[in-house]
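Entry 12.
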Amino acid sequence: MKKQILSGLIFSFFLATTISACQKPFIQGTCYYNNTQDTRRHFLDLFSIFAVSLKKIFQYGTCDSSFWFEHAKPPIRSEKPIITWIGHSSFLIQIGNINILTDPVFGSIPLYARKSPAGLTREQLPPIDYVIISHNHRDHTDMPSLHRLQIDHDPIFLVPEHVTIPGINKQKIIEKTWGESITKNDITFTFLPAYHWSGSGARDIRKSLWGSWMMTYSNYNIYFAGDSAYGKHFQDIATLFPAINIALLPIAPGEPHEHTKYTHMNAPEAVQAFLDLKAHIFIPMHWGTFRLGPDSFEYPITMLKNAWELNIDKLDQKKLAILKFGGHWSLPD
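Predicted 3D structure (tokens):
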């Protein structure tokens, strides 16, 4: 009993230290910014990326489902970590006999048709306990998917500060700002910085926060980066969490880099972020599902493999786990 109390006190101290040490967003009026140097240029960059994408709209290529799709068969529950990629930034994370969904999107979204099948359909999901949201862009906060999840599973939704989900029971929504944590069912969810922006439409740009999530269970850390440009925050997160087991990191869109670099990492930057985090396993995401830039279907993965090889001397005992849609990673027995 004394040992359990001591462990609890140590962990409580760690959480308090995390909250005090974590970078805070810069708030001006009712708008959020990454820091005092941040600007509103991201919305203009979005139009630049979209314009370049239109020029190559017929060059994207198709998903070879015979190679890139795997029939997922997740267990109902799992004590050890199992991570199944649904597509884009959507994962089923199973750990501690708890089931978690990240940024769930199961179909197409406004303006963007889905280019590859979902690795898991809503009907194939095990019981879902928690849904974590990184920010309110449409490819991460999909209202039809969230509403269906509430009807079918009634989970708790963990969201950034001021993210709203109309039609969802407010008692089931928990908002967090950077550095805040909550422990549920022995899993601690900590909301952390990301360099990005928010807005589901023209009227709510930057009106809600964005970020990343760390999930901790029995000293096992899984980091979900959401959307982010490359930045110093990855080093800061490694300081707060010196033993990150798995990092789920975005690798696209990466072109045109002069515009995407303010809001998204390309594959080489994602490898550097992985090194900054000092994590052990890199699972790439945010590629191959929607046409969000001029990149061809497999271009981000090709760039990722090249960047990994260029840094191979720094990646001793690290692992790159490229999942297929419906593919999974699990802790070896």
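Annotation: Residues 2-21 form the longest helix (20 residues). Residues 52-58 have pLDDT under 50 and may be disordered.
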